[in-house]
Amino acid sequence: MSLLSCTNTASLKVSPNWSQFFEGQLVSLSCEDEGPGWTLRRNTSRGTRRHCGTEWGRGNGSSCRIRTLFSWDSGVYWCESSEGQTRTSISLSVTGGPLVLHSPVLPVMEGQEVSLHCRTRPPSNRSADFYKDGVFVGVGPAGHMTIPQVSLAHQGVYRCDITGVGQSPPSWMSVSEKSTTTTPSVPPSVPPSVPPSVPPSVPPSVPPSPGSLALMVPVGCTCALVFLIVLVLLVIRCKRRRTAGQTLI
């Protein structure tokens, strides 16, 4: 049977969250977080687009419970609105064999822990060999294997084998990429402001010392006094010349 991965946001809830069941087990399905008008439908060997509550299972259309599973309940299940919109397609497998692999039927978020269980009927604690996409990946003591942090690389088809018992049907495990949170943009670093260029420093005018002032004052006075004496002498000489000229006349 073709195994389908989930599409869009997982609105179809499955309890227990397994993809494989033994005949005689029960399962509950519901369309959640979709509002009114959504219906559970399925495609199986007994028909396509069958409506829950009237043609299979018990419920009110958006929720359904199958109390006793049979092999013909294997198929694809999904949620569909009254307008024909679809959400989440999953594949359930029901077997009458001795071995099933319990793996998540709904997508698991990247980084989560995932447990795989190889179950037998009747139950046993025997170790199991696990395979992914046909490649051996490890031995699980007591039929149990844990992936501590699942990544996108773990997405694929799994099965388990137990020597002397058999092997499980294939089971698809879907991994959703972890949503990235938007980090606030960091503004570009602004270089420190460069101070304006400083003009060459002008040495401050140095006031004359008191000693130099004392020296400058007498020198100035002496020059003025000499000038005054010379001027007086010239005036007297001129007067004498004039008086001498008048006497000669």
UniProtKB/TrEMBL annotation:
Residues 23-95, 98-176 form the Ig-like domain. One of its GO terms (molecular function) is transmembrane signaling receptor activity. GO terms for biological process: cell surface receptor signaling pathway; immune response. The chain crosses the membrane at residues 213-236. InterPro entries: Ig-like_dom, Ig-like_dom_sf, Ig-like_fold, Ig_Fc_receptor, Ig_sub. Coiled coil: none annotated. Keywords: Disulfide bond, Membrane, Signal, Transmembrane, Transmembrane helix. Residues 169-209 are annotated as: Disordered. The keyword Transmembrane applies. SUPFAM superfamilies: Immunoglobulin. Residues 169-178 have a biased composition (Polar residues). One of its GO terms (cellular component) is external side of plasma membrane. Residues 185-209 have a biased composition (Pro residues). This is Ig-like domain-containing protein. It comes from Sphaeramia orbicularis (orbiculate cardinalfish).
